[in-house]
Specification:
- By secondary structure, this protein is mostly helical.
- The protein has one domain.
- Strands 1-2 form a two-stranded antiparallel sheet. A two-stranded antiparallel sheet has the order 3-4.
- 34% of the residues are buried.
- Its main location: membrane.
- Its EC number is 2.5.1.145.
- It is an enzyme of class 2 (transferase).
- InterPro entries: Lgt (IPR001640).
């Protein structure tokens, strides 16, 4: 039986919203309208592959054990995707798409930055439908009520326990990040990958906290969850990107295309207008202006004009 999951719909809606926003931002900077589609046709599939691969590799105990079904590794419809894997796979796909279309990779990344946060915020709404990825118990009024029958419900806690809705926190954090990037762009120039650097720093900082209070199973390295390490790496890479690109490219970005691949905006054809140079038509004959001598003769031959 074919089933449509609410989580999948949220992710799809996020991808569409990010695509529309990125397309508008890139077109406003001189790119051909619709060129984003040529890029996301590579970025989205590879992003999905990366998301799944990262999840499987960071949760090996769920897929590699005696008697495990090896095909479960590919059963993405059963859940199990990781945003950090999507970033890696999507970056590879975006690079390929940019090379083919002639768009600079960092120009695309800058245009994508706020849209990426929108997509992630909308995707997190799917966690609410699935009642998953929640945090530690809490007594706060906005705590999430999780049924005790939920497979992720911690053993030993009484029914009715409330939990931190970490996905809601991330939705709010990402929305603020969109506003932050747009405001910063109004004051300083964020080009050559620096807008994407701000995205990495902002998202990484938030994710570091949200991951630290989540209670879903995860691989631990040196006492820290895998995704916390990934978030820290994102922050470091974002800072490096902002600093290095700011020094390498202190000037304005002339074009979002690589040299020799520029898109030339078509010049609309202007229809020539024919202007009527004939004299005003007064019946069958055109009236020609009288010469100055004729005017004088008329005035002297008319007695009333002489009076």
């Amino acid at each position: 039986m074919f089933r449509i999951h609410a989580y999948a719909l949220c992710i799809l809606a996020g991808i569409i919203a990010a695509t529309v926003m990125t397309s508008r931002r890139l077109s406003n900077r001189g790119a051909e309208p619709g060129v984003v589609l040529d890029i996301i046709l590579w970025a989205v599939p590879l992003g999905i592959v990366g998301a799944r691969a990262y999840h499987v590799l960071t949760h090996p105990g769920d897929y590699f054990f005696a008697g495990a079904n090896p095909w479960e590794v590919f059963a993405i419809w059963n859940g199990g995707n990781a945003i950090f894997g999507a970033l890696i796979g999507g970056a590879v796909g975006a690079y390929i798409g940019c090379r083919i279309s002639g768009v600079k990779f960092w120009s695309f990344a800058d245009a994508l930055a706020p849209g990426m946060l929108i997509a992630q915020a909308m995707g997190r709404l799917g966690n609410w439908f699935n009642t998953e990825l929640f945090g530690l118990p809490t007594t706060l009024p906005w705590g999430l009520e999780v049924p005790s029958t939920n497979a992720a419900f911690p053993v030993g806690l009484p029914a009715g326990t409330l939990f931190h809705p970490t996905f809601l926190y991330e939705m709010i954090w990402n929305t603020i990040g969109v506003i932050l990037i747009l405001v910063i762009e109004r004051r300083i120039t964020l080009r050559w990958g620096r807008a994407f650097g701000v995205y990495l720093v902002w998202y990484g900082l938030g994710r570091t906290f949200f991951e630290s209070i989540r209670i879903d199973p995860s691989e631990i390295f040196f006492g820290i969850r895998t995704n916390v390490w990934a978030a820290i790496i994102a922050v470091v890479l974002g800072i490096i990107l902002i600093v290095v690109q700011g020094r390498r490219h202190p000037g304005l970005e002339v074009s979002v295309y690589r040299q020799g691949r520029e898109w030339k905006r078509p010049v609309p054809e202007v229809e020539s207008e024919e202007f009527d140079t004939d004299f005003e038509d007064h019946g069958d004959e055109a009236v020609e202006p009288a010469a100055s001598g004729d005017v004088a003769a008329t005035s002297t031959s008319n007695p009333r004009l002489q009076a």
